[in-house]
Specification:
single chain, mainly beta, Fumarylacetoacetate hydrolase, domain 2, 11% helix
Length: 284
């Protein structure tokens, strides 16, 4: 089942994608795609609805972040062997964890906005994991039972703020629009193996990242279990599981995003993101 949120920013409504790829409105069934609708019994009830019985929406309608009411976005650094190598850093012995502000969340095709003095804004395609039931001190073998579904995430990063200023990575990761999520939240039952998904990212039509989640250092089950021993993962929480090689910082010479650039991101079974890069008016 593929779930979406549609409508203007801050006023999104729930929806479902039918077998022909058309968006159907779920507003009269549930209030939102968020913590209260990610429980297994709710998802089971939604899966029993015939999508063709629901109102069809305009194909050009805006899509918002595929999950609302997100309590926290937990990110994993250097979780692909090839990305650690391109960063000239050792493969981590345990997951590198940082947080991304929830105000960074935006729709999959919304513009990424960068400030005039940001010259090192980077792209990072990632598998997003959305939690469906509370996870606290869970074992790896049980971890995937706490997952509601999967989506595409772009962990947009301003490298100057992340790496060249004192403190933690979070400040270089949390600007508005720095976490496009979606287009779809694909429920766990449709993804038989989250460790076998192809990821691809293009910048202005040129392939920059091409890999598979099979190249993760720590797989999804391990990450959910690991994180649950440090914090309670709640329904609606998002885990961004790391990015493969091919980020701008790893290009030779380094290449970063500029106003007017266009990104396309695809993960097998999870849809596609298309977004432009725009300048943000810092005086607003």
């Amino acid at each position: 089942m593929k779930l979406v949120r549609h409508g203007e920013p801050g006023c999104e409504h729930p929806g479902m994608v039918d077998a022909d790829g058309r968006i159907r409105d779920l507003s009269h069934k549930i209030s939102d795609i968020g913590p209260n609708s990610l429980r297994s019994e709710v998802l089971t009830a939604l899966s029993e609805i015939d999508p063709y019985s629901l109102p069809e929406l305009d194909e050009n309608i805006r899509l918002g972040s595929c999950v609302g009411g997100v309590g926290k976005v937990v990110c994993i650094g250097l979780n692909y062997i090839d990305h650690a190598r391109e960063a000239e850093l050792p493969e981590p012995k345990e997951p590198i964890v940082f947080l991304k502000a929830t105000t960074a969340l935006c729709g999959p095709n919304d513009s990424i906005r960068i400030a005039p003095d940001w010259a090192k804004t980077d792209w990072e395609i990632e598998l997003g994991v959305v939690i469906g039931t509370p996870a606290r001190f869970v074992q790896k073998g049980d971890a995937l039972q706490h997952v509601a579904g999967y989506c595409i995430a772009n962990d947009v990063s301003e490298r100057h703020l992340q790496l060249e200023r004192s403190g933690q990575w979070t400040k270089g990761k949390s600007a508005d629009t720095f976490c496009p999520l979606g287009p779809w939240l694909v429920t766990r039952d449709e993804i038989s193996d989250p460790s076998a998904l192809e990821l691809n990212l293009w910048l202005n039509g040129k392939l920059k990242q091409s890999s598979s989640t099979s190249n993760m250092v720590f797989d999804v089950g391990y990450l959910v279990s690991f994180l649950s021993h440090f914090m309670t993962l709640m329904p609606g929480d998002v885990i961004c599981t790391g990015t493969p090689a091919g980020v701008g910082m790893g290009q030779k010479p380094p290449q970063f995003l500029s106003v007017g650039d266009r990104l396309r991101l695809k993960i097998a079974g999870l849809g596609q993101q298309d977004c432009n890069v725009e300048s943000v008016n810092v005086n607003c």
